[in-house]
Amino acid sequence: MITDIWEEFLDIVRQEAGSRVVETWFKAVMLKKWDMDQKVVYLQAPNIFVQNWIASKYMSLMQVNLSRLLHVNELKISFLVGEKDSSDIVGMQGAHLPVAMATKSSSASFSAPSKTGGYISSHYLFENFVVGPSNSLAYAAAQAVAQKPGTLYNPLFIYGDSGLGKTHLLHAIGNNIKQINANAAVLYQTADRFVNEFISAIRFDKVHKFKAKYQSIDVLLIDDIQFISNKEQTQEAFFHIFNTLHEAHKQIVFSSDTVPQDLKGIATRLRSRMAWGLVTDIYIPKIETKIAILKKKAQLNSEVLQDEVAYFIADTVDSNIRELEGALVRVMAFAALTKQPIDINLAKKVLTKKSHENVKPVDFSMIVHSVCKHYNYSLQELQSKSRSKEIALARHIAIFLMKKCTNKSLRDIGLFLGGRDHSTVMHAYSKIEKSIEHDQQLADTVKGIERTIC
Ligand code: ADP
Ligand code: MG
Questions:
Q1: pLDDT band for position 361 (50/70/90)?
Q2: What is the model's pTM?
């Protein structure tokens, strides 16, 4: 039965990603249909936020486990959104879905990935990139390059910390060039995929073909070039590709986490070439730009964000824009799931809880130490085979907290606690999880111990 398969799958997600993920996200989704001929699983999601969140984070988990449960080698996953029927089917077959939010009417889509290059995501456009002082130079340079590839800034080198929009701009350049000239051969590739491709070209004696492919394109967008460091042979090959393209006035764009001269493990001649054109940075925006980004993202999802909500989210998340976007998605998804309006109280509830969850790293020994202290047992007793009721309870609480407060696997937990197997650990975890729902005294005990460690 298809529902049994879904239940079985949820158990796996519970083990792999934790019950909270199941309760918050997967419980909102239904396995609607399994098309055995086409090998497509149709999942019904209540709204686009849930769909995007699950697809961006758990696509490979779903593909691996559902294909195993359905006894096929591989399958595709399609989402049905809302109450509608197949007219709303959103094809999302890749495991590489970026964490991008789709508008309600559109779906995640990519220009067809070429066999060898990366895809260009149709979500990342200049139009949905919010410009502020922190990124205006990079944005202007990217636009200039898209308008006149190969003539102005070649190469264009954009650097900055993670999550600040570099990949977005690379894709936006690619999309814009394709809009202007559909025949332009644009290739987006991350540097680590470039390295892997090169390694496999060596293995299969296809280096010549590899170079020919790269040397024949019009626009080369290389993301995260730092990953080419210490790969001397790849750098050598890339050096020649660069020279050929540059001499032919083909546009090259790099992104990186640092300026060319600080790239460690990259040959000087390559570093100097990277700085031949324009080197420009992106840095973390100030609150005004963050608010503008939030409002834009909300608007793209047909939501209007009140000022105080936007301000609260922008103020709470100070790491990068990817996190900012993640926070907004969580707030919107929670509102949609619980059918509540997005207001300041709801945002506080969702995000404050989250930051409380972001506890300092906790390890097994801290947890076990606290449990032992509370019950006055030794570690050996907890690890022993003793089945005495009291020791078993302490052990179960330790398991519960080890699973809750760390991201270690059930297997690791079992090994730490005297070589217990995965199902015993799972059983103990579920037992405590269920018991604390109605046993207030136990819930208080667990909370008390948790407070001493988290
Ligand atoms: P990086 O490549 O620098 O690590 P990304 O380009 O992947 O960062 O950006 C992370 C997320 O933040 C993406 O979803 C992107 O669309 C979004 N983002 C970053 N900067 C902006 C911006 N200025 N306006 C709108 N969205 C942005
Ligand atoms: Mg990136």
A1: low
A2: 0.63
